[in-house]
Amino acid sequence: MTCALEFQDVHFAYQDGPESLRGISIAVKKGEKVALVGPNGAGKTTLLLMCNGTLRPTKGRVLLDGEALAYDTRSLREVRRKVGLVFQNSDAQLFAPTVWQDVAFGPVNLGMPVDRVKSVVSRALHDVGLVGFEKRPPHHLSGGEKKRVAIAGVLAMDPEVIVFDEPTSSLDPATAEEVMDLLDEVNHSGRTVILSTHDVELAYRWADTVVLMDQGEVLSTGTAEALFSDVALLHRARLKPPVVMDLFRELAGRGVLSREAPPGNALAFTDLVERQVLGRVSPDGHGRIYIADVGDGAADRVKTLLSSGTVERVGAMGTKAKRFAGDEKIALDFTYGVIDKCLLRAVNGENSLVLTSGGMVEHTVGRIAAYMEESGREIEVHLI
């Protein structure tokens, strides 16, 4: 798989200060979800600002699509079209009188024709669930809505890579989950997504690859399961393990569970406990999972299914699906971790409906298929 971004022995020091980055060498594959994880002062934000040329290494190189970044005005203009950056503080990114003008700022500065600007701004606002917010002043919005406007402004540029600095910082738990759903949608639309966080729970369940950082250095790079099961490494990075990993280690240490590969999420943990403690897995194929793409014409099909009494649980993945559920007055049982929760319900004999859209439909089908292969269970899946 080719690299979207690559950092080769990157060093950086702010004026009159010590080095903030010391020999960073990592490669980000196209289409990956990558989390830079570390405590405050680890150098995460500084590294993210290297991605689109906001900061220039004092030593080393940053490569985009295999080509070293150039820092002249013309080259940086193209880099920032390909790599979008969403700041931790949305207020630092929003400045126009209206949401529409804020989202349109980038496309206008790229010299897009007026009709094209209207098209990309409308699509970006639709993608983040802010249709109808066009004339509203950004400073009147909630924290989560401001974050969506900032993301829409980046999406309007149609970048290949989107970089997020602490995307859930200062957000309440429900809004944070909505933002992470949106990041999944962005990724499944074909874009590479990189974020920084000190939240190990978020990184553990979200990232394909974790880059563990401390004091301007990369301590290790790998899967979340591998890195977060290394107690000595986490201690060095001044981080605590995810709850699932902590519980697994305690039970394994007491002999309740065998010391096999640690579970990646609550679903895998439940299966592990059932298999090792009860000595069996529950019978196959109890419940079914229905998947609905909430595009045009979905409302009638979804209402018909729900009115039949076939489905006990309903979950919505992504901004569009949640807005659809709100418009259609559909009560939601699951608003995050939807696929795994529906799989848990299916194993327990309940039928579920997943509302989602676009590339998330294929992702949902693939995740269920992967679970069936891993667990040996057979679960009926129906696209409606």
TrEMBL record:
GO terms for cellular component: ATP-binding cassette (ABC) transporter complex. It is a peripheral membrane protein. Gene3D superfamilies: P-loop containing nucleotide triphosphate hydrolases (3.40.50.300). Keywords: ATP-binding, Cell membrane, Membrane, Nucleotide-binding, Translocase, Transport. InterPro entries: AAA+_ATPase, ABC_transporter-like_ATP-bd, ABC_transporter-like_CS, ABC_transpr_CbiO/EcfA_su, Co_trans_ATP-bd, ECF_ABC_transporter_ATP-bd, P-loop_NTPase. GO terms for biological process: cobalt ion transport. Residues 5-240 form the ABC transporter domain. GO terms for molecular function: ATP binding; ATP hydrolysis activity; ATPase-coupled transmembrane transporter activity. It is found in: Cell membrane. NCBIfam families: cbiO (TIGR01166). Belongs to the ABC transporter superfamily. Probably part of an ABC transporter complex. Responsible for energy coupling to the transport system. Part of an ABC transporter complex. Responsible for energy coupling to the transport system. This is ABC transporter ATP-binding protein. It comes from Methanofollis liminatans.
